[in-house]
Amino acid sequence: MSFPAIRMRRLRRNETLRGMVRENKLAREDLIQPLFVVEGAGVREAVASMPGVQRFSVDQVVLESKRVADLGIPAVILFGIPAVKDARGSGADAADGIVQRAARAIADAVPSLCLITDVCLCEYTDHGHCGLLEGDEVDNDASLERIVQTALSHARAGASIVAPSDMMDGRVAAIRRELDANGFREVAILSYAAKYASAFYGPFRDAAESTPEFGDRRGYQMDPPNRREAMREMRLDLAEGADMLMVKPALVYLDVLADARRAFDVPLAAYHVSGEYSMIKAAGERGWLDADRAMIEALVSIKRAGADLILTYAAAEIAERL
Ligand code: PBG
After folding, report:
1. Is the CB of 205 within 6 Å of ligand 1?
2. Which tens digits make up the pLDDT trace of 282-313?
3. Nearest ligand 1 atom to alpha carbon 274
4. Which CATH fold topology does 26-321 show?
């Protein structure tokens, strides 16, 4: 049977019908709000390259977390910007580091919120790379111990999920071992498993002050043209004990996400990254498109491709509109 008996438009006639047959819906529970934490008190500063995004001091990030939770968003992911940086990224695992203080304060004030922390050294190293340097190279195995200690310090500060984003080999197993050895068996690992060396991180590096001093991250993050390799990365991280997997960026890697959805039963997260967010905002500011609609369309495409969870800077504004 075909036209004229078949008419696809019958089920598109009005919003009620469209709603009944809609295959994917964005829900508040799907969203994770990234938050940037800086030193100081009473600080709320706009990030120029990310319209609508602010950096908060610890006291203010508590208020923002409360607002996010009240909007029905279940989780936040914290990124810290320390006052001082050094070669080994000492601030990353300091018991009184910026993320650790923020995590404690949020866990205390908003206990219902799921606290996720980004585990990486790049915001804390003066060279801006995600691990320790050996000459001009990032030394994988030497970096692991720093990353593991960072994850442990986050767990001690109240994180319920740690999310390593450094792309070193073996970090998931190393973190799992250390967490278990220290009584944090219940802390989950959300692995940035398929993380590409992407130009779409540009605005984030402004916000997090984490641009590499020299070179780039192509020696550890994935090469954008590769698809099969992402499956290998994800299988390895699952074997090492990851509870959830992430694909990052999201929109330009929806094929990878769809592959992962077919292959794995674990919850999948996708990171709608800073560049993907800011380009919609920027075009909207110029009146070139309807940014509100474009944002929803972008996020629902991520769900359609198979994500269970979406990390997005638009989480709070979307939750307000849902
Ligand atoms: C840290 C990290 C980055 C992002 C999340 N964690 C930056 C990078 O790898 O350069 C990017 C997030 C974004 O662009 O929104 N390694």
Report:
1. yes
2. 999 999 999 999 999 999 999 999 999 999 99
3. 15
4. TIM Barrel (3.20.20)
